[in-house]
Amino acid sequence: MPAALTARADVRTETPERYAKQLVEHLGHRVSFTTEGATSTAEIAGGIGSVEVGEGVLVLRAEAGDQETLDRVQDVLGRHLVRFGRRAELDVVWAPAAAG
After folding, report:
1. What Pfam family does this protein match (any one) (predicted)?
2. Hey, is 76 helix, strand or coil?
3. Domain count across the chain
4. Which of 14, 22, 37, 76 is deepest in the core (most CB within 10 A)?
5. Is the pLDDT of residue 1 over 60?
6. Which residues neighbour 11 within 8 Å (Cβ) at sequence distance 6 or greater?
């Protein structure tokens, strides 16, 4: 398998648990999430997406073998979170994730 492309978005919010639960439950109607501790992970649109609850931050991660798939994973996670967090004006800004 070629080296995976990865991206990360740190979304600042006072209620990361709430938004993580809402996002995982909503997407869980189409994909199956595995949760370990504060991180939930699923195969999404041909790649891997994860949602991690931090202190004052919700961390979204996307991983895929090619840019098109990475873009789809980012779109699915980001678009739904922005819709849920419209009132709180959540902002999802993706950046390439550091290797390792």
Report:
1. DUF2218
2. helix
3. 1
4. 76
5. no
6. 19, 57, 58, 59, 60, 81, 85, 90, 91, 92
